[in-house]
Design brief:
About 0% of the residues lie in helices and about 60% in strands. It is mostly beta strands and about 110 residues long.
């Protein structure tokens, strides 16, 4: 079972809808060690992050981050160790269009 350390996903949502940052492919699993959320604007914005088992619907019950404020031109790094199996999804959302970028770092095991 080889491991690859890499950027697992990056996104800069252009709107306030849910967006999938990571969907684990067939025969693989992933460990998200760090999630970095950067606010690229001069106004605070809120972030949401959901860990969805098997692609279940995003809901408060699978939220990791929920309406957390990211300050203007600020960066927040979350050290998490989230384990994701095949078909699991890490979903993100921003409360302000074009305000936040999300980058997940970790390892993929195949």
């Amino acid at each position: 079972m080889p491991s690859a350390y890499k950027i697992l996903g990056q996104s800069a949502p252009a709107n306030t809808n849910n967006a999938d940052l990571i969907t684990v492919g067939a025969g693989k699993s992933q460990i998200v060690s760090t999630l970095v959320i950067a606010n690229t604007t001069g106004t605070a914005a809120t972030a949401r992050v959901f860990a969805r088992i098997g692609g279940a619907a995003a809901a408060a019950s699978n939220a990791i981050v929920y309406d957390t404020s990211i300050g203007a031109n600020a960066t927040t790094a979350l050290t998490l160790g989230i384990t994701l199996a095949t078909t699991d999804v890490l979903t993100i959302r921003t409360g302000t269009s074009n305000a936040l970028t999300f980058t997940a770092f970790g390892s993929e095991i195949s």
